[in-house]
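Final paragraph of the annual report: two paired records, presented back to back.
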Amino acid sequence: MQIVFFNTFEKPGEDQGMASAQLSICESQGIWSVLWMEGESESGSPLTWFEGMSWEEMIVAFRHGVSRVMGEGYTPIIDGMLDDRRPSSGSFVTMLQCYGEHHHNPELFQKLREWRRATAIAEKRSAYLVATNRILWMISAFVPKTAEELSQIPGWGSTKHASYGAEMLAILEEVEHDSVFPLQWVAEKLDTGIYTQWLYKQKETKYKSLMDRQMVKKHILLMVQQGGSLEQLGSELELSRRELMDRIEQLEQEGYDMDSLITRELNEVPEDEQLLVWEALSQVGDKYLKPILQQVYGASDASQLGKPVDVLYERLRLIRLRFRRSLTSKAV
């Protein structure tokens, strides 16, 4: 096994001592390994962060692990292993986000979550589109009482204020709080150690998300190769059909051949129907599917179509993948 990278990490230990650990990237016959060993003894067993053939997956696992241990207080002898430099001062926005997460009012936060849930149901949209947890944490920590103060909460822009500002201020009106606006005082009051750990936690979460997407990608490609269907993929990955189609389209953009899956899914769709969709894509363009739906099927109301609209949209997206590939082939 060849060691291609090695670094030592240290963090304050007990009795004013220093705890150490070693991180290495190794390669053997095309297999990459990321190994973490705590302590100076070479007789122990290292913790394997990654083992596989993909360089891309290895790097993400490496950065995820580095973010986690640096958030725990470890400092590398050689820095610069993440996608950017080690966070130190950060931005004022991230300071507000960190402070809000650590100092929010739990009761008020729960009340805001209930408001968000009711609003999302009424508007038939995802709750995070109304307001993210991060925004609600900050609002419950700083408790703005005027439109001007509310506008100082990162993420609460003019669009949200036009839609929800009056409701939000009505909720906050009854809450007592002594926050001072503007919020520049946060930069001095925020604990540096807590803030640094929070920044690394954001990186850890980011790389964990990338790792999860890579696992989903591998699963989709394997299932496509084995003849799996969208229904099987959605069930095994616990993704909605819309989310799954988003992933399929992304894989197509990355250059992976999804034609075998497309063929299986369109097998029961009449050829004349597929031809009508193809002609509509040629005439109208492939950016928006609603005009295609209306041109081919004559309406966008499910009750008039006799079939669920989401099923028809899925068909259109599958045929559009082939259509776009044909355009790419002609361009080449």
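The closing record of the year follows.
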Amino acid sequence: MTRAEELNQIQREQNEACECALKKTALQPVFGDGNPDAKIVFIGEAPGKKEDEEGRPFIGAAGKFLAEMLAEIGMKREDIYITNIVKYRPPDNRDPEEHEKHECAPWLHAELNFIKPDVIVFLGRHSMTHFLPGLVISEAHGKLVHRKIPNIATEYFFPLYHPAAALYNGGMRETLMGDFKKIPKVLEKVKETKK
């Protein structure tokens, strides 16, 4: 069994076991997507309408913007792994609620501990505050955070604004693009630290 197949099996098992209430209203689960050996994992907040229909994360406007930013730093979507804090679309694209994040957490943690990335990038406050409560995205964005979190192999985290929020806000867009360009240096720094 390849690592991609193993990861897919974990996804299917977690979907079966997941007791998130959003399961009842979503069309389907949206599994994480990408390289099972990725050095970097991006975590968004929740699938949107298009993602719910097609079963893949970040395929709408925010996903296109993310792909453009990856290209700017010489990476492709195939190099990374991308997932969401909740695996099912909230009704009317509302924010995921705390209990929904909690119900989907074992699934997310299983993905992360299988991949064991060097760095986890939070796309927006929802994924960030799940792992790093007390941080504020407007202060934490673009800064590397080193923290040991129980039951998570990765210790390095890099919060960013969510691409969807930055799409229609010029100032936030510039900030996000600037922060995003730090990713290669962040990966290099973490690699050096782990030697």
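The two ends are 30 Å apart (CA to CA). This concludes the annual technical report; the extension proposal builds directly on these records.
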